[in-house]
């Protein structure tokens, strides 16, 4: 069987997470989804910009993520803003819950994507919120890198 060509398999991305948070550690986790949610994710219409993860009752949940209804599903559709269970090993769950409770960290979803097997995965980060001076420093560094690239591209001509 011929291998399918590589394609952009990112369904949703939280692009502002690296600006608002200092990423300490990342983790790949599974998601419990219904069939219509998977179809909607494959269309790339989901948003996770305002979502977060939390530990409740010995399980980790993705809260406030928006996976819009799949238009062709009629009455079998899912609720767009429902809580979704995140699948992690018990040791990972305990480590994440400990980091949140002990160190005041936050669980931030970075992206939802499909792996090589076609399964929906969530890249989850343990993060610490940045304050205003840290965000300004990030903006300065980004501007400086942009200027460096511009000068290198021009070949140092002035």
From TrEMBL:
Domain of life where this protein originates: Bacteria
Family designation: Belongs to the SmpB family.
Record's compositionally biased regions (Basic and acidic residues): 131-158
Pfam families listed in its UniProt record: SmpB
GO molecular function, one term: RNA binding
Keyword terms, alphabetized: Cytoplasm, RNA-binding
Lineage: Bacteria, Pseudomonadati, Pseudomonadota, Alphaproteobacteria, Hyphomicrobiales
Gene Ontology CC annotations of this record: cytosol
Subcellular location: Cytoplasm
One BP annotation, GO: trans-translation-dependent protein tagging
Region entry Disordered, spans: 127-158
Task of the protein: Required for rescue of stalled ribosomes mediated by trans-translation. Binds to transfer-messenger RNA (tmRNA), required for stable association of tmRNA with ribosomes. tmRNA and SmpB together mimic tRNA shape, replacing the anticodon stem-loop with SmpB. tmRNA is encoded by the ssrA gene; the 2 termini fold to resemble tRNA(Ala) and it encodes a 'tag peptide', a short internal open reading frame. During trans-translation Ala-aminoacylated tmRNA acts like a tRNA, entering the A-site of stalled ribosomes, displacing the stalled mRNA.
Annotated InterPro entries: SmpB, SsrA-bd_prot, SsrA-bd_prot_CS
Identification of the protein by name: SsrA-binding protein
């Amino acid at each position: 069987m011929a291998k399918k060509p590589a394609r952009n398999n990112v369904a949703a991305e939280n692009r502002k997470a690296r600006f608002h948070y200092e990423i300490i550690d990342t983790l790949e986790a599974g998601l419990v989804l219904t069939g219509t949610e998977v179809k909607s994710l494959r269309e790339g219409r989901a948003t996770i910009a305002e979502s977060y993860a939390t530990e409740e009752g010995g399980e980790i949940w993705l809260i406030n993520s928006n996976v819009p209804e799949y238009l062709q599903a009629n009455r079998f559709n899912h609720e767009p803003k429902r809580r979704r269970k995140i699948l992690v090993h018990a040791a990972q769950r305990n480590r994440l819950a400990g980091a949140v409770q002990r160190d005041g960290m936050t669980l931030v979803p970075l992206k939802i994507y499909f792996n090589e097997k076609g399964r929906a995965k969530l890249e989850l980060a343990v993060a610490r919120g940045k304050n205003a001076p840290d965000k300004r420093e990030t903006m300065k560094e980004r501007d400086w890198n942009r200027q460096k690239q511009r000068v290198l591209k021009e070949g140092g001509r002035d």
